[in-house]
Structures are given as structure tokens and as C-alpha cells.
Amino acid sequence: MARPRSFDVDVVLDKAVEAFRSKGYEATSVEDLERVTGLRRASLYGAFHDKHSLYLAALKRYDTTNLERVLSEVKAAPSGRRAIEGLFRMIVQPPRRPAASRKTAAAWKTRSAR
Fold first, then answer.
1. Has residue 62 been placed in a domain?
2. Residue 7 CB contacts under 8 Å (≥ 6 apart), including other chains
3. CA-CA 20 to 30 A from 57: which of 15, 48, 50, 90?
4. What pLDDT score does 86 carry?
5. Does the residue 87 lie in any domain?
6. If you average pLDDT over residues 6-23, what whole number do you get?
7. Closest CA to 107 of 54, 52, 61
8. Would you say the C-alpha torsion 56, 57, 60, 66 has a positive or negative sign?
9. Treating both helix axes as pointing N-terminal to C-terminal, what angle do 9-23 and 30-37 enclose, rounded to 10 degrees?
């Protein structure tokens, strides 16, 4: 029987997002992920199976938290006009996604073709 997890998955994913964002997918090693998350390789693999799955989970977490942020800002706007203006500002200056580099995008295209 597996031991229950003693870490917050969302915190680990948020840290993984930052690691992938700063170095890109290919350049981020499992050792980098161990260092930033504070987890050992066995725990990372036990929770996420492999680096690819961790990356996908991190992207999903990023998208979810980003959507929540957008919705909360829209709801907090004092008027519909201010909400729309805020949305336009977010579109013009969106936050960087973890897979922002061309090198990472090319690696994903190659990996997806397999």
C-alpha cells in the first residue's frame, strides 16, 4: 500500500511552473525539479510518473490559476467598462507561459509527433 502524500500538489506544480518557465522544458532537469520542489526523484515520479506528465500537470495548473486570476479581476471591476479595459490590458500584456521559448515549442512538436 502506498504512503499518503505529505506535500501539497498545487505548491509543487507552482514551483515546477517557475522551473520550466525559467529554463524551458528540455533544459530543466529532474535534478532542477528536485531542487525547486524539495522532493526526491522517487516522490516526483510517484506523483507524476515522468517529467512530461509533470510538465503537462504544471501547464494545466498554470492555466487554471491564470483563469481564476482573470475572473477575479473581472468580478472586482467597478463597472463593465472597467472589466473590459482590464481584459484588454491582460491580452496586450499576458503573463509568460512556462513554454514560452521557441526551443521548448519545437521540442514539444517533435515529441508530439512520436
1. yes
2. 37, 38, 39, 43
3. 90
4. 87
5. yes
6. 93
7. 52
8. negative
9. 130
Residue where the block lists cell 502506498: 2
Which of 58, 52, 51, 56 lies closest to 34, judged by CA?
Answer: 51
pTM for this entry = 0.69
Can you read off the three cell numbers belonging to residue 79?
Answer: 463597472
Residues in the chain: 114
Please state, rounded to an integer, the average pLDDT across all residues of the chain. Answer: 84
What is the total count of domains within the chain? Answer: 1
Range of the domain at 73: 9-107
Q: State pLDDT tens for residues 58-76.
A: 999 998 998 888 889 889 9
Write the CATH number for 47. Answer: 1.10.10.60
101: in domain: yes
